[in-house]
Amino acid sequence: KSGANGGRMVFKNGSSIQVATSFRSGTVQRLHISEHGKICAKYPHKAKEVKTGTLNAIHQNAICFIESTAEGVGGDFYTMCMRAMEQAKSGVELSREDYQFHFFAWWQDPKYRSKVPMNGLIVPKVMAEYFAGVEKSMSCQLDDEQKQW
């Protein structure tokens, strides 16, 4: 069955997969929350439901992926990210219940490139400042095809 807020598939072996905008009760064994930063920033009541309902429905040995663009400073996603980064830096061994922070920048993906025009790369001042900031803060070197993209 399916609907505007998701659906459920049940397999012959009795297992199932469900897609929904929120879960409450039950036992979630695999969870993917997409754009949680945006939810926290634009829909705080939905973010609260995720925190009090969905995240509390996770099984002890579940796998949970929460991905998003940060959408600024503040909100539950920001707090979760900061806590995960601080724990990683502390050197304390993380438990299965601790979130692990992973950051994947656009410039790390080899597909994010465009051919530079014959007349060369033209970079507006604001973009030159952005690229310089990325290179400095991330200790990387962007090439012209990445900048063109």
Task: Characterize the structure shown.
The protein is of the alpha+beta class. It has two domains: 103 residues, no CATH class; 45 residues, no CATH class. It has five helices and five strands, in the order ββββααβααα. A three-stranded antiparallel β-sheet has the order 1-2-3, with no helix packed on it. A two-stranded parallel sheet has the order 4-5. Helix 1 crosses helix 2. The longest helix has 16 residues. The radius of gyration is 20 Å and the shape is elongated.
Write a short abstract of this structure.
The protein is α+β, with helices and mostly antiparallel strands and 149 residues long.
Number of domains: 2
In order across it, which strands form the biggest sheet? 1-2-3
Q: Report the average pLDDT across residues.
A: 90
How would the global form be characterised? elongated
Task: Round the Cα radius of gyration to an integer and report it.
Answer: 20 Å
Give the helix proportion (percent range).
Answer: 25-40%
Portion of residues in beta strands equals: 15-25%
User: How many H/I helical runs?
Assistant: 5
Q: Ranges with pLDDT <50 over ≥5 residues?
A: none
Largest sheet: 3 strands, antiparallel
How do the SSEs run, as a string of H and E? EEEEHHEHHH
Gap between N and C termini, in Å? 41 Å
**Computed structural class:** alpha+beta
Number of E-type strands: 5
InterPro entries: P-loop_NTPase
Protein name: Terminase
Organism: Vibrio anguillarum (Listonella anguillarum)
Features:
single chain; 149 residues; alpha+beta; three-stranded antiparallel sheet; two-stranded parallel ribbon; P-loop_NTPase; Terminase
